[in-house]
Amino acid sequence: MDLLKILRSFEELLFEAMTWLYFYPRTMLRIVARPLTAMAYSDREEGQPEDQRYDDALNPPVLLIITLVIANLIGWATHSPQPVGATPLAKTIFGSQQNLLMFRCLLFGLTPLVVTLTLLRKDGVAVSRKTLRRPFYAQCYLAAPTSLALSLGLAAVQRGGLAWTTAGLAVILAATAWLVLTEVRWLARRLGISRLAATVTALGALARAACYMLLILVPAALL
C-alpha cells in the first residue's frame, strides 16, 4: 500500500515536471509579448477554485523559481566567477547552488513585493495576506523574464571583452526599460491615474526595491 502511494506520488511528480517543459516557454512568451494580458490572467485565476487555477500556464511564483533555477544553471555552465575579493559570506552564497538560488529568490522577490505594497497603499487598501496575494502573483509574472534577462546580461558582462560587455549591457537596459514601461501601464490601469503619475509611482517603487536590494547586497559584500 505504501509502495503504491509512493509510485503515485512519483507519477504526479513526473507528469508535473513534463508539463513544465511545455508550459514554461509558453507562459514566458505570453508574458513578454503581452504582459498586461498575462497579469490580468493571473488576477482571474486567483479568483478560481484552487484546483482549477493556472490550468493552461505555470503559476507565477513557480515560474519565477524555475527561471532562477535556469539562471543558476546558466551561471554554472558558463563558469561565472565569484566576485573578486569575495568575503566569507559572499563565498558561502556563491559557493553553493542552493544558497545562490535562495539568495536570488530573495532579491528578485523584492520588486514584486514593493510594487504590490505601493499599489495597495496608493489604492487605500489594508495590507494583509489576502490583499497582497493577487497583485503579488501578477508581479511575479513580470519578475520572471526580467530576472532571466538580467542574469543573462550579467553573465555576458562577466565574460569580459567589448562584444560580450556591450551585448550584456544592451540586454540589461532592454529588460529594465520593458519592466518600467509595463509597470507604468499596469499602475495607470489599476489606480486609474495618468501615465505621468504612474511613471513617478513606478520609478519610486522600483527605486525603493533597488535600495532594499543594496541593503542585502552590501552586507554580503562586506561581511
State the secondary-structure class. mainly alpha
User: Counting H and I runs of at least 4 residues, what is the number of helices?
Assistant: 8
Q: Specify Rg, calculated over alpha carbons.
A: 19 Å
- N-to-C series of helices and strands: HHHHHHHH
Portion of residues within helices: over 70%
Number of strands: 0
Query: What overall form do the CA principal axes indicate?
Result: globular
Description:
With 223 residues, the protein is mostly helical. It is built from 8 helices and no strands. The chain has helices at 2-33, 35-46, 60-77, 88-94, 97-123, 129-159, 162-191, 195-222. It is globular. 27% of the residues are buried. The model has no long low-confidence stretch (mean pLDDT 86).
What are its keywords?
mainly alpha, 0% strand
Topology of this protein?
Elements: H1 2-33, H2 35-46, H3 60-77, H4 88-94, H5 97-123, H6 129-159, H7 162-191, H8 195-222
What is the compact description of this entry?
This protein is mostly helical and 223 residues long.
